[in-house]
Amino acid sequence: MNKKLKAVVLAAGLSKRMKSDFSKVLHKILGKEIINYLLDSLTEIGIDESDIILVCGKNLEEVKSVVKRNVRYALQNQQLGTAHALLSAKEYFHDFSGDLLVTVGDNPYITAEELNKLISHHRETHSACTFISAVFPFKPPPYGRVIRDENQKITGVVEEIDASPEQLKIREVNSSIYLFDNQTVFPLLFKIDNHNAKNEYYLTDIIQLLKERNQRIEAVIAGDYFISIGINNRWELQEAQKKFNHSLWSS
Questions:
Q1: Could you read off the pLDDT of 128-170 as tens digits, one per residue?
Q2: Among this protein's residues, is 17 annotated catalytic?
């Protein structure tokens, strides 16, 4: 029997690079907010709205006023990194024995099809952690690089700011879409430290912690590298408008 599935959406990001007064997850593409594209995909794969937790910051009331769904909310008082954001929602999953899907709220490209591929692979391989990666045909955006050994096994993810010149040549990046066996992963979240260039608690560090404990880690490469792209500035928002408009007219 399949495990129960919950989702945590990290949506506390501000709009500094958007140069906007309202949260970046609330910017619209073809009239619909970015966050609502993602939430549609989560409900399409069968996750109950009450099993979706949105982690917000100062944008909490703003997000609530737009989402208007039976989701739950957690407050991240300080933005200290993605692992810190996830732990801000721990009251909802600390004793959860199923699979925990963790994603970001500023990515409208995440589809139900890609999420179903992630879930199927995770459960078929009985992994502790499976995440979606994307291979760019050109220099990737400033995302974490996926590190593999000579047998193509995942050994870690290195954030761009901490990567070596050789690691920066890697074109496979982390999409920040994870599926965890929660009972295995949850205790390790407290072991993540902030010894890095940003002094932040990176969720990507969970991969190294799992590897040290000989837990299975898998990556599913997305069919389209756009799956990994979050909307962080006006140019990316315009590109999303073009892509969604093209998809609308092509369907």
A1: 999 999 999 999 999 999 999 999 999 999 999 999 999 999 9
A2: yes
Quote the CA–CA distance of 242 and 232 in Å, as a whole number: 16
Burial environment of residue 28 by CB neighbours within 10 A (0 to 12, 13 to 18, 19 or more)? middle
**Per-residue pLDDT at 15:** 57
Answer whether residue 16 shows pLDDT above 90: no
Strands 52-56 and 5-10: parallel
Global confidence as pTM: 0.94
- The residues, ordered by sequence, that sit 6+ positions from 196 with a Cβ below 8 Å of its Cβ are 159, 161, 162, 202
Work out the number of other CB atoms within 10 angstroms of the CB of residue 102. 26
How many angstroms separate the CA atoms of 184 and 236, rounded? 36
pLDDT for position 17:
57
